[in-house]
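hey so i finally got around to running the thing on that chain from the lab meeting. sorry it took forever, my laptop kept dying and i had to restart like 3 times. anyway pasting the input first so we r on the same page abt which one it is
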Amino acid sequence: MILTVTPNPSLDRTYELRDLTRGAVLRATADRVDPGGKGINVSRAVAAAGHRTVAVAPLGGPEGALLARLLGEHGIEAAGVRITGSTRVNITLVEADGTLTKVNATGPEITESEAETLLETVRTWSSDADWIACCGSLPRGLPPEWYAELVARSHGAGARIALDSSGAALIAALRERPDVIKPNVEELSEAVGRPLATVGDAVKAAEVLRGRGAQAVLASLGADGQLLVDGSGTFFGSARVETVRSNVGAGDASLAGFLAAGGAGRPALAAAVAHGAAAVQLPGSVMPTPADIDLSSVVTTTDIPLDRVLTEPAP
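ok and heres what got predicted. didnt touch it at all, straight out
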């Protein structure tokens, strides 16, 4: 079972438009609402792959009630923590040419007692979990050290932790030695405080974060592929992608694939790449099913293309 923790979940409403014109009244050609937040996306991908998953998240107001119902419809057990604020609603506008415009709400403020209840809920479920995936930004009310406390308590209970966050929250958590962290290029660059222009730059940055406490680094390089840097070495994975429809949630699908495949080594990296490649070919934040996964398109290697210039370098 994979337990996910999403401190700032959302309802994600996606509207498809012919084009986006400022100041105009627009009519959507299609729309959908999905349970959102990075950890919840991981749970969605895990459930879509046929594995058991439990999602811990603060839920408030009618939006929180709808989110809980949608989780059940996706085959996800909801371990909701009731809060006084209302769960946020995020908006994604998708134009016909694939251009995405996102409006993310700030979300509710979490009280001290609600924050403690979240931690205790994770502890309660941790004994049943093969992995705990802690994902996303921290809402108002939670200090940057909150993830560090969660990692420490979870390790104390014998659980393995995957952390997908950024900024101060990521840096603070490194001292508690999360089992794997999953930054993208921009987050990797921010964490080490320098630009990343090549795959080799990304490898060096991942090694820095391992030196600061991360036991493994699964780094997404966007269209260029993914890196896994751990105690056994450095691995690079990539896959063919015919058409990109949406990259929303692709990183979360990758993490789900990685954890579901054991969370270590080249086979897990291959699963991560395959899940990410499948996700970008699906609309909105739809998560891939086993029928969408094509492991034959994935290549993993220890021959790292260090001099390859990143398609989307981090300034």
